[in-house]
Amino acid sequence: MSFLDIDERLLDLVEVVQFDRSPLTDIKEVGASGMCDLGLIEGGVCNAENVHVLREFRANCKILVAMGACAVNGGLPAQRNHLSLQSILQEVYHTSPGLAAGSQIPNDPELPLPLNQVHPVHEVVKIDYFLPGCPPSGDAIWQFLNDLIAGRTPQLGHGLLHYD
């Protein structure tokens, strides 16, 4: 959503870049077009599907940017890392108040296998740039993208980075 906070500047961006997919479309496969110049990835890695999608995306991006605290360091979801996955699943599906009688831990092959810990994306694939923040502001994203498009190393000053 922070990406959309660049507001009407998005129209300026459309003049110089071609969008292949976005989180709004929730497309997880790399299209027939193959390689892209720049990929933005957000969110931590918490299940086997995340690992697969991230590795495939990395293989098809010349430059990959980890965007936001969850991608950069695991963010709030990584707060579960000091607990065992089994104890979390037991709490959520067996001992939490308000559960229906006989509640079970989901075990369906359609569900992605959870990892024991939440990982930042750089622990799974090579990341070229990091755009921190929770979330990064629209202004930070705009500046970052403009620097990259212009061939400059992104430089974000103190006023553009925040951790709300």
Explain how this protein is built.
This protein has 164 residues and is of the alpha/beta class. The protein has one domain (3-81, 115-160): NADH:ubiquinone oxidoreductase-like, 20kDa subunit (Rossmann fold), CATH 3.40.50.700. Helices cover 28% and strands 15% of the residues. It has five helices and five strands. The chain has helices at residues 9-14, 48-59, 69-73, 85-95, 138-149, and strands at residues 36-41, 45-47, 61-67, 114-119, 129-131. The strands form two sheets. The chain has a three-stranded parallel sheet, with helices on both faces. Strands 2-4 form a two-stranded antiparallel ribbon. It starts with 8 loop residues before the first helix and ends in a 15-residue tail after the last helix.
Q: Using only CA atoms, what is the Rg?
A: 18 Å
Q: In terms of structural class, how would the helical and strand content be classed?
A: alpha/beta
Question: What is the fold named in CATH at topology level?
Answer: Rossmann fold
Proportion of residues in β-strands:
15-25%
Tell me about the biggest sheet? 3 strands, parallel
CATH architecture classification: 3-Layer(aba) Sandwich
Number of domains: 1
